[in-house]
Specification:
Belongs to the acireductone dioxygenase (ARD) family. Belongs to the short-chain dehydrogenases/reductases (SDR) family. GO terms for molecular function: acireductone dioxygenase (Ni2+-requiring) activity; acireductone dioxygenase [iron(II)-requiring] activity; iron ion binding; nickel cation binding. InterPro entries: ARD, ARD_euk, DER1, NAD(P)-bd_dom_sf, Rhomboid-like_sf, RmlC-like_jellyroll, RmlC_Cupin_sf, Sc_DH/Rdtase_CS. Keywords: Amino-acid biosynthesis, Cytoplasm, Dioxygenase, Iron, Membrane, Metal-binding, Methionine biosynthesis, NADP, Nickel, Nucleus, Oxidoreductase, Transmembrane, Transmembrane helix. Pathway: Amino-acid biosynthesis; L-methionine biosynthesis via salvage pathway; L-methionine from S-methyl-5-thio-alpha-D-ribose 1-phosphate: step 5/6. α2 runs antiparallel to α5, α5 crosses α7 and α7 runs parallel beside α9. This protein is α/β, with parallel strands linked by helices. It folds into 3 domains: 206 residues, Up-down Bundle (Rhomboid-like fold), CATH 1.20.1540.10; 165 residues, Sandwich (Jelly Rolls); 253 residues, Rossmann fold, CATH 3.40.50. The strands form 7 sheets. Strands 17-16-15-18-20-21-26 form a 7-stranded parallel beta sheet, sandwiched between helices. Strands 4-3-10-9-12 form a 5-stranded antiparallel beta sheet. Strands 5-11-8-13-6 form a 5-stranded antiparallel beta sheet. β15, α16 and β16 form a beta-alpha-beta unit. The longest helix is centred in the last third of the chain and has 29 residues.
Length: 723
C-alpha cells in the first residue's frame, strides 16, 4: 500500500487519468468534453442550462445533468474550476471507501438540492455550487491541513471556502451566490454524516439506501471486518517467503506474536472501527494530511504484479509510517530484534504504525486487493530506502534500534545531589543504565559520590566553570564510551525580595542556572552532532513560565534558560538532537538534605532574611517563603514519580519541548497564559486605528448614492442573467 512508483508503461497524463476514482474520472471527463463541444460550436450553452420550463414543460431532461457539466468556454477560469473539481472530488471519493456508492450518493443529494434551490436564485448552471459543496465537506473533514492560496496566504482547510468566496468577490465584484449555496448544502451533509451520528447512537440519515449500494457493490463482503483481528501476527525465520515462493501466502510458523511484543520492536497496532478514532490519533500525533490508495489488478492493471513485487523489497523509511486499512487484506513483514521476520496480517479497520528506520515490506494476500489510508505529517511523500550494508549505518536505522539489556543508555546527570537529581540517578541505575552522577564542588566530597557499582561514575563539578564541565564530559566518554542523555538538574536560588538580594547573589544565580546550562550545551553539543543523536533534559521550573514574588532574580534566570533552549531546539533539530525543558512545580523531596548551611535552606534555595520594608507577614515579597514553610515536605508531587517520567522522556522518540510536572504547575501556567490572553484582548485596540466618525458628510452622501446605483445595476444584471 506504499505509494506507487513508476509509470507502468503509461505517460504521466494517462496515469493521472486512470488513477482517479471512477466517479471523479468521468465527471472531469464530461466537464472537459462539454466545454470542448461548446468551443467547437457543436452545441450551445442555451441547450445545456437548467430551467423548470424547459425541463418539465418541454421534456428536455438532459438539462438535469448538463447544468452540472458546463463551467464556461476554454479559459483560465475553466482550468481553475476543473482543478478544484477533480482534486476535492477525488479526495472525497477516495476517503469514502472501496465502493463508489457513498460518493455517488453525495453527488445525487447535492444535485437534487441544487436543482430545487436554483429557481430561487436565478442560477441556470450549477457546476460551480456543486464543486463548492465538495470543497466545503472536504475542508471540514480535514481541519488540521494547511493550505496556501496563490503562495500568498497560508491557512487551515476550514477557511478554504471563505477564501474562495473572497477571491470570487474581488474578481467578479458580485456576491458569490453559487458558492454560498454550495456551502449551505455541504454543511447540511457534513452535519448529518459527521456531527449528528455520534450524538444519536450512530444513526446516519443521509447514508445511501441498501438498494443504491447494491447497484455498485453487487455482493456483500464477509463479516470478518466486524470481528477483532485476534491472530494478526506470527513469527517466522530469517526468510519468511523464499524467492521462488508465493509471498501472498500466510507463511504461518505457528508461533504467535502479541501486541506487547510488537511494541518491543517499536510497532504499534490498533483496531479502530470508526474514522473518528483515526482523526483523533492523527491529531494526537500531529498528522495533517492523508490520502488513500488501492492496490489491486483492477486499479493498477498490468502493472499490479510488478508493483507488489516492488513493495515486497525490504526497505526502510526516514519517516514514521501509518496505514489504516479501509477494505481488503494484506501483510506487513517487519524485522524483529533478532533480525527475524514477523508477519502482521491486516484487514479492515486495522491501523499500524511503523517507526522510522525499521526494515519492513508489504504484500497483498491471495485476494489481491487492499485499500488503505496513508497519513502524513506534512506533504504526502513516500521514499523507500532498500536494504544494503551501507544503510545499516543510517541515523534513522540506528535510532530505531531499541535499547537492549546488554546495551543500556549512558546518562550524564548534573546536579545529582539535589532532590530531583538523586531521584533521577536512582531511577536510571535501577533500570541498568550507565550513569555519571555529578555532585557540586565545595558542597560534596568525592567519597560521598561513590555508589559501589560499576554502572555509576561519581564526579564533582562546578557548572559555572566551563573547563570543569568539559572535564566531566571527557571522563564520562573515557569510562562509558558514549553519552546518550544529558540531564541538567543543577540549580541555585535565593528566596527574597528583588531589592534585598545583592549583586553577588544575583550573579551567582545567573552563573549557575543560565551560564551553567550554556556551558553544558556548548561542551557536549559537538559530540552529539558527531554521533547524529543526543538528548538534553534541562530542568527549568514553573518559575520559568510565570513570575513568583520573592523569586525575582531566580525567575529571570529560568526565563533566560527557557528562551535559550527554545531557540536552540530549532538550530539542532536537523542533527537529530532533541532538547526538553522540564518544568516541575512544588515537588516533595525523596529524602532530607544532609548539607548544613548557616542560613535556612529549602532544596537548592537559600532563604534570605527580609529587610524592614518587606518584613511584614503579609508582604508579597514573602510569598515564596510562606509557601515553602507552609508546605514543608507535603508538596503534592513526588520527586520519585517525577524522576520516572523524566527517565521515560529520555527514551521517547518524539519528546515535547516542555514537560510540566505536577498539578500545581499545570494550573499555575494555565492561569498565567489565560491572564496574558485576556490582557492582550483588553488592550489590543491601541494597535488598531479608531473607527471613523459616523456623521454624514457630502463625501459620505456621494458614496451612498454610488452604492445605491451599484445595487440597481446588480439587480438589473441578475434579471438579465435569469432571462
Amino acid at each position: 500500500m506504499d505509494q506507487m512508483i513508476g509509470d507502468g508503461g503509461r505517460n504521466p497524463l494517462e496515469a493521472w487519468f486512470w488513477e482517479m476514482p471512477i466517479c471523479t474520472r468521468w465527471w472531469t471527463t464530461a466537464t472537459v468534453l462539454t466545454s470542448a463541444l461548446v468551443q467547437c460550436q457543436m452545441v450551445t450553452p442555451f441547450q445545456l442550462f437548467y430551467s423548470v420550463r424547459t425541463v418539465f414543460h418541454k421534456g428536455e431532461y438532459w438539462r438535469l445533468l448538463t447544468t452540472f457539466l458546463y463551467f464556461g468556454p476554454f479559459s483560465l477560469d475553466l482550468l481553475f474550476h476543473v482543478y478544484f473539481l477533480q482534486r476535492y472530488a477525488r479526495l472525497l471519493e477516495e476517503s469514502s471507501g472501496r465502493s463508489p456508492a457513498h460518493f455517488s450518493w453525495l453527488l445525487v443529494y447535492s444535485m437534487a438540492f441544487l436543482i430545487l434551490l436554483s429557481p430561487l436564485v436565478s442560477m441556470p448552471f450549477l457546476g460551480h455550487p456543486l464543486s463548492s459543496t465538495l470543497v466545503y465537506i472536504w475542508s471540514r473533514r480535514n481541519p488540521d491541513t494547511r493550505l496556501s492560496f496563490l503562495g500568498l496566504l497560508v491557512f487551515t482547510a476550514p477557511y478554504l471556502p471563505w477564501v474562495l468566496m473572497g477571491f470570487s468577490l474581488v474578481m467578479h465584484g458580485t456576491v458569490p451566490k453559487d458558492e454560498i449555496m454550495g456551502v449551505v448544502i455541504g454543511h447540511i451533509w457534513y452535519f448529518f454524516t459527521d456531527v449528528y451520528p455520534p450524538m444519536h447512537n450512530g444513526s446516519r440519515p443521509l447514508d445511501p439506501p441498501m438498494w443504491w449500494r447494491r447497484l455498485f457493490e453487487g455482493r456483500q463482503r464477509g463479516d470478518t471486518a466486524d470481528t477483532i483481528n485476534n491472530e494478526f501476527a506470527v513469527a517466522g525465520g530469517p526468510e519468511l517467503a523464499p524467492a521462488d515462493g508465493d509471498q501472498r501466502l500466510p507463511h504461518d510458523s505457528g508461533r504467535d506474536i502479541n501486541e506487547e511484543e510488537l511494541k518491543d520492536i517499536g510497532v504499534l497496532y490498533y483496531r479502530i472501527p470508526e474514522l473518528a478514532g483515526v482523526d483523533a490519533l492523527a491529531h494526537e500525533r500531529d498528522y495533517k494530511n492523508r490520502d488513500e490508495i488501492t492496490v489491486s489488478p483492477a486499479k493498477m492493471g498490468d502493472a499490479y504484479e510488478s508493483k507488489v513485487r516492488m513493495f515486497f523489497d525490504e526497505h526502510l523509511h526516514e519517516d514514521e509510517e501509518i496505514r489504516y486499512i479501509r477494505d481488503g487484506k494484506g501483510y506487513f513483514d517487519v524485522r524483529s530484534k533478532g533480525d527475524e521476520w514477523v508477519r502482521i496480517q491486516l484487514e479492515k479497520d486495522d491501523l499500524i504504525i511503523l517507526p522510522a528506520g525499521i526494515y519492513h515490506r508489504f504484500t497483498t494476500d491471495e485476494d489481491n486487493y487492499i485499500q488503505a489510508m496513508r497519513l502524513f505529517k506534512e506533504e504526502p511523500k513516500w521514499t523507500p530506502l532498500n536494504r544494503s550494508n551501507d544503510l545499516d549505518g543510517n541515523e534513522y536505522r540506528k535510532a530505531c534500534e531499541p535499547p537492549l539489556p546488554n546495551s543500556p543508555r549512558k546518562q550524564l546527570v548534573f546536579g545529582g545531589t539535589g532532590h530531583m537529581g538523586r531521584s533521577l540517578v536512582k531511577c536510571a541505575l535501577a533500570r541498568n543504565d550507565l550513569v555519571t552522577d555529578v555532585g557540586r564542588t565545595f558542597e560534596t566530597s568525592p567519597e560521598s559520590m561513590e555508589r559501589g557499582t560499576q554502572n555509576c561514575l561519581g564526579m564533582l563539578c562546578d557548572v559555572r566553570a566551563r573547563q570543569s564541565v568539559a572535564c566531566v564530559i571527557e571522563k564520562t566518554l573515557e569510562r562509558f564510551g558514549r553519552i546518550d542523555v544529558i540531564a541538567n538538574c543543577s540549580g541555585y536560588g535565593v528566596i527574597g525580595a528583588c531589592e534585598d538580594q545583592d549583586e553577588h547573589e544575583i550573579r551567582n544565580q545567573f552563573e549557575t542556572n543560565f551560564m551553567g546550562t550554556l556551558h553544558i550545551i556548548q561542551a557536549s553539543l559537538p559530540y552529539f552532532r558527531s554521533q547524529s543523536t543526543g538528548r538534553y533534559l534541562i530542568f527549568s521550573s514553573t518559575s520559568g513560565a510565570l513570575g513568583v514574588p520573592g523569586l525575582g532574580p531566580y525567575c529571570a534566570t529560568k526565563y533566560a534558560v527557557e528562551g535559550l533552549i527554545e531557540a536552540m531546539s530549532y538550530e539542532i533539530d536537523s542533527f537529530n538532537v532533541k532538547a526538553t525543558l522540564v518544568e516541575p512545580g512544588l515537588v516533595r523531596r525523596d529524602e532530607p538534605d544532609s548539607v548544613t548551611n548557616p542560613l535556612p535552606t529549602w532544596g537548592h534555595f537559600l532563604i534570605k532574611p527580609a529587610s524592614e520594608a518587606y518584613a511584614h507577614p503579609s508582604s508579597p515579597a514573602l510569598h515564596a517563603k510562606r509557601m515553602v514553610q507552609w508546605l514543608g515536605d507535603r508538596q503534592p508531587t513526588s520527586a520519585v514519580k517525577c524522576a520516572e517520567l523524566v527517565w521515560q522522556l529520555g527514551h521517547c522518540s518524539y519528546p515535547p519541548l516542555r514537560l510540566v510536572l505536577g498539578s500545581y504547575a499545570i494550573e499555575s501556567i494555565r492561569d498565567r497564559l489565560r491572564s496574558v490572553t485576556e490582557e492582550l484582548e483588553d488592550w489590543k485596540h491601541l494597535n488598531y486605528p479608531a473607527a471613523p466618525d459616523t456623521e454624514t458628510t457630502p463625501a459620505t452622501e456621494g458614496k451612498n448614492a454610488e452604492r445605491e446605483e451599484d445595487i440597481e445595476d446588480m439587480d438589473a444584471e441578475t434579471q438579465g442573467h435569469a432571462t
